[in-house]
Amino acid sequence: MFSLFTKVPSISATDLKKKLTSAITLIDVRTPSEYQMGHIAKAKNVPLDQIHMYNKKVQTIYVICQSGMRSAQAARILKKNGYDVINVQGGMNQWSGPIKGGK
């Protein structure tokens, strides 16, 4: 049975940086304005309030936000919808790699 306390696997921002060398699906669940201020180049913006509508057929989804709280929420929703999800702990606050501004 699914609950809000379902554990979702997580990785560090450092581990995410290593994963970015291959083709992965990375979703940034921050607001569009936060995303435009700076995001990881491979990240697609799907704000938390729209995550329940996400329906792409992908293997594993990595989810990031600013601190790791909203992405953990989003990860639980995606997991409930049948996705294999990994949360990025600490979010963009822990990210030390390059960021891209704009859309």
Summarize the structure.
The protein is α/β, with parallel strands linked by helices and 103 residues long. The protein has 4 helices and 5 strands, in the order E-H-E-H-E-E-H-E-H. It has a single domain, classed as Oxidized Rhodanese, domain 1 (3-Layer(aba) Sandwich), CATH 3.40.250.
Indicate the topology.
Elements lengths: L9 E2 L1 H7 L5 E4 L3 H6 L5 E3 L14 E5 L4 H12 L3 E5 L2 H4 L9
Parallel strand pairs: 1-5, 2-3, 2-4, 4-5
Which CATH-level-2 architecture? Answer: 3-Layer(aba) Sandwich
- Structural class, please? alpha/beta
CATH superfamily: Rhodanese-like domain
Strand order of the largest sheet: 1-5-4-2-3
Largest sheet geometry: 5 strands, parallel
Describe the structure.
- The protein is an alpha/beta fold and 103 residues long.
- The chain has one domain: 3-Layer(aba) Sandwich (Oxidized Rhodanese, domain 1).
- It is 28% helix and 18% strand.
- The chain contains 4 helices and 5 strands, in the order βαβαββαβα.
- A 5-stranded parallel β-sheet has the order 1-5-4-2-3.
- β2, α2 (32-37) and β3 form a beta-alpha-beta unit.
- The longest helix has 12 residues, at 69-80.
